[in-house]
Design goal:
Elements lengths: L4 E6 L8 H15 L3 E6 H4 L18 H11 L3 E7 L7 H8 L9 E7 L6 H13 L3 E2 L4 E3 L17 H25 L1
Parallel strand pairs: 1-2, 1-3, 3-4, 4-5, 4-6
Helix pairs in contact: 1-6
């Protein structure tokens, strides 16, 4: 039996983001974990326009190629991790937009969070995302990765993130939880 497919979604699209370096570290950690097959969806590269489908996502009558490709990527995934900053005490618009594009493809799958920011470590973003993902019938993991004062752990050129031991341990806990939960939830989708 193959491993569940984990889609790591990089939610920040800012040109000066640190999210890419945090995501690269988490992706490497997830691949080394070995319990999940890891794919990456960087929203800065995918560039989904602001929701532009004429029909409600529940109808799955997608008109645009970018939506069809996004739907295929999300449908083949068994679990997700959103790598997210906190913008103005909230979630990034690109992440919310990516969720809003679809409905059925998200359902009955576990989702975890890697958040980063200043003192708050992005936790307010995660709280807002949890309201959205539960409405999409996703199951948020209790284990999370919260990175406070992220700027202190990113190289000057923003290409490398160096985690603390606690951050590394929390990533392992999240990956363990996803690897256990994804196969069980797959049975709910059958």
């Amino acid at each position: 039996m193959s491993n569940p497919v984990l889609q790591v979604i990089v939610c920040s699209t800012r040109p000066t983001r640190v999210g890419k370096s945090v995501a690269d570290w988490f992706i490497e950690t997830a691949r080394a974990h070995g319990g999940l097959d890891v794919e990456v969806a960087d929203l800065a590269e995918i560039q989904l326009p602001l929701l532009d489908e004429p029909h409600h996502p529940a109808m799955q009558q997608y008109q645009h190629e970018h939506t069809k490709q996004w739907a295929q990527r999300i449908a083949r995934s068994d679990a997700y991790v959103l790598v997210t900053p906190e913008y103005n005490y909230g979630l990034p618009a690109a992440g919310k937009n990516a969720l809003d594009y679809l409905w059925h493809e998200w359902g009955m799958k576990p989702v975890g969070f890697v958040s980063y920011g200043g003192m708050s470590a992005g936790i307010r973003s995660v709280q807002m995302f949890k309201e959205v993902v539960t409405t999409l019938r996703m199951y948020p993991m209790s284990a999370t990765v919260s990175i406070p004062n992220v700027a202190e752990h990113v190289s000057e050129d923003r290409t490398t993130f160096t985690p603390t031991d606690i951050v590394t341990e929390s990533a392992t806990a999240l990956l363990d939880e996803l690897a256990k939960t994804a196969p069980v939830m797959a049975q709910l989708r059958d």
